[in-house]
Amino acid sequence: MDFKRVYTSSKTYYILTIVAFAILAFTITIAYKQVLRMQSSAEMVSHSLHVYNGISLLTAHFTQADSEELRDELLKPGDSNLAFETYREEGRVSIDSLQLLISDNPSQIERLDRIKVLLDDLYEQLQDLNDVDYEADNTILQYRGAQKTVISITLYQLRSIKEKMIVEEQRLMEQRKKAYASNKTLAPKILLFLAFIALMVFVLSFIRIYRNKARIRESENFLKSVLATTDNVVNYYEPIFNEKNEIIDFKVVFANECNRDYFGLEPDKMLGRSVIKLFPHLKGSVDFEKLKTSYLNSEKVKFDSKITMNDSVMWFHSFVTPLSEGVLITARNSSVEEEAKNIQLNLKKRLENQNLKLLDSRALLANIFKSISHVVMHFKSIRNTEGAIVDFQILFVNDRINPITGQIPEEIKNKNVSEIYPDIFENGVFEHLVNTIEVNKHTEYEVPFEKNSKTHWFNATAIKLGDGVTVTIRETTGEKEKSDELRKLNDQLVIRNSILTDAESIAKIGSFLWYMDSDTTEISENFYRLLGYEPNEFKSSLKKFRDFIHQDDLALYDLKAEAYFKGETSEEYTYRIMTKTGAVKYVKTNGQFLNRNGKQVMIGVVQDVTQSIHAAEEIRKSNLDLKQSNAELESFNRVASHDLQEPLRKIQLFISRIEDVDGGTFSVKSQNYFEKVKNGAERMQGLIQNLLSYSRIDNSKTDLELIDLNHVLDKVKDDLVASINDTGAEITSDKLPNINGVFFQMEQLFANLIANALKYKNAATSPQIQIQVQKVAGTDLPDHLLSTSKQYHKITFIDNGIGFDSKHANKIFEVFQRLHQKTEYSGTGIGLAICKKIVENHNGFIFATGELGKGAQFIIYLPA
After folding, report:
1. Which residues are listed as membrane-spanning (predicted)?
2. Same domain, 10 and 152
């Protein structure tokens, strides 16, 4: 258990406070019970005293029977009966009083019952004595003497029982005195102990609560400091309700200083004001609904929003947290991230282009290996448990091995050399390969090979690569005969070097070779020209090149140079240089380390990227313009979806009512005009709906999924079944592929193309629509299309309709462009523009070909 956490928890001390109250209540209860016990003990002692008094009265009562006075009183003539009854009543009262006092003591009650019996006997004896004549003779006197003797015996028995009762009461009195003394001694101690515990708990709780309060104050001060220095907007809103208890707005309860920095709003002046008045963009927005949702459902909500304040567009990533009677909004300015995303997107596209170039380079390298006359092989070392090389695995061999040995490269790849070429362990070749790897030094050797009873000699060069060796083998049997060919190869090399020099000039690239041990460099001619000098105009070195670095980029250059010296990195980076003429250029450097003759060298290139940097800036500005255009398009969508359609719906409503009420009274001419008005309104509605469809085609590609175009075609056929049956059209299709796309957009694309073919059908024949599919390489696309994918699905829609003139092939994909009058064919001129936007949204291409009277073809390329 984490005792420290329990000790430092405020909840623990709240519990202790409650416990203290409980102990205090318990103490009061114990004290009350102890007082009751003491009172009970005192009452029991008092009770014993009352019993003593009762016994004493009873004793005095029956003792009177032994006195001469009572006897004389009883023997008086005349009222003796009255005196006796009075005496007897006194005894009964004493017995009843004592019986009430000892009602809780069975043994005393038993004794009292015997006393009752003896008293009754005593009364009878006294009564007998009273009934004897006062003037009696001697016999009567003897009888009276005997009667007195009996009375004395009865009195003796009564005294004996009385003594036992007194002894019993004395015993009870001692017990009750001890209980009273014990309660009187224990009660203060218990009360003092419990009160001390309660006091300690109260003191500890108070100290802890006081400390927690101090910590809370420190936390509040710290929180205020954080809110004052944070880069995030932190606001607290409380809801405003209408008469129906619905949230119509929020009021600002707290706002930090960032409101001034980002929105130009003073935090103190924001307090108590309406959120919608401060931020009008929230009115009726999704963001406002999320604020309400967070408050009503007591759940956290996060969202991204774009805010335009003071002609400045900012992006914020907001977190809404329900808190107390309102919501806490923490908004982080993510404008830089949004810009970074756009930059990243551009970089991604550049990377994709570079990957395509890399694929081309790989293809070129493969072609080079196929075209060269040398055998190139790469072996990977196979080591035993001691780390010694015992064999090699063949990882690569080019096609030139086949004319020499008759072997097919794919069949010997990934096999061991000991299996394919066991002779190398006998002719010394194995030792050459092992030495190349262990010594890290390239090795040249000759090896014979028997073919058609003739010895062919080959010259081999082994170079270490990782934990393997690359072997280049060339045949030297006809060295002299091949001297002319070698000369030609040298000439080609000179030409290639010339081409490379020209390529550096065209690409604004300079190459360099840096000897790290001596800090000397060799740079290409175009490198000199990039610096504004003629080739070899100065002696190059890393120190000399530093003089050309722009003053603001010297720190970055020195840092990279130090890393290069240590051999830590060779990453690409961009910086500025000052040319001989004082011009500022952006250059990008990249290089790699090599070991040449046992020395560490770096080879690399420097490229002038000034135009690219400036172009990137232009792109950034263009992106800003594009954002403005998108905002205008969104404004148009709102106008088109409501402001334009609302009056149009009213026009159509009143057209319908006029037609219903007065349609039968129109003249022929008026009926014709009325039909034109009605058709114009319907056409306007179709234009607006198609414009909305065109503008709402999303190019974010966030909802791409794998879709079967066969299912798309089947659904389109079902939707157009009435038109297909009316025209007698026949639609045939190859098996369509699966693509990554948006289902409803593909459905709209197919529907528009097939509907066009049905609409512009040839009046003399039934429509024949063919859909052909072919998978093509990206390099096979028409020259005017820029390929971004390795392979494409080519989908062609062919119809036998009226066709069109090929000079209008591009025009038909423009918005509102029509090749026919609206009286000839219905339509809005937007359908094919929607098709083009959908295809481009899927990174594809669409174009059309046609011939008047012979149909049209719509060709679509979609990435495979």
Report:
1. 12-32, 186-207
2. yes
Across the range 48-72, mean pLDDT stands at 71
How many domains in the chain?
5
- Tell whether 49 and 98 lie within a shared domain: yes
Residue 359 lies in a domain: no
CA 81 to chain centre: 113
Q: How buried is residue 406: exposed, middle or buried, by Cβ count under 10 Å (0-12/13-18/19+)?
A: exposed
Quote the tokens at residue 156: 């003796």
CA angle 585, 588, 592 (to 5 degrees): 150
Q: Which two tokens stand for residue 459?
A: 């010259």
Strands in 599-608's sheet, in edge-to-edge order, are 520-523, 509-515, 599-608, 584-596, 573-578
To which residue do tokens 């014709």 refer?
672
pLDDT in tens, 475-528: 777 664 565 566 666 655 555 555 555 556 555 787 777 776 677 778 888 888
Both 22 and 140 in one domain: the answer is yes
- Classify residue 547 by its DSSP letter: T
Closest CA to 669 of 677, 657, 681, 661: 677
Please check whether residues 402 and 517 belong to one and the same domain: no
Tell whether 459 and 499 lie within a shared domain. no
Which of the four pLDDT bands, split at 50, 70 and 90, describes residue 438?
A: confident
Rounded Cα distance, 164 and 113, in Å: 13
Around Cβ 511, how many Cβ atoms within 10 Å? 19
Q: Identify whether residues 724 and 836 lie together within a single domain.
A: yes
pLDDT(457) > 80: no
Domain membership flag for residue 343: no
How far is residue 737 from each of residues 710, 771, 773, measured CA to CA in Å?
7, 12, 8
Q: What mean pLDDT do residues 357-366 have? A: 65
Query: How much is the pLDDT for 714?
Result: 93
In a domain, 673, yes or no: no
Question: What percent of the chain stands above pLDDT 70?
Answer: 76
With 90 as the cut, is the pLDDT of residue 711 above it? yes
**Residue 473 and residue 600 share a domain:** no
How many residues can be counted in the chain? Answer: 864
743, 712 Cβ separation under 8 angstroms: yes
Report the distance separating Cα 41 and Cα 181, nearest Å: 9
Report residue 239 as tokens: 């809801």
- The answer to whether residues 19 and 112 belong to one domain is yes
CATH number of the domain that residue 591 is part of = 3.30.450.20
Using alpha carbons, list the distances in angstroms from residue 109 to 62, 115, 168, 230, 356.
18, 10, 12, 91, 121
- Domain region containing 148: 4-209
Residue with the larger pLDDT of the pair 77 and 462:
462
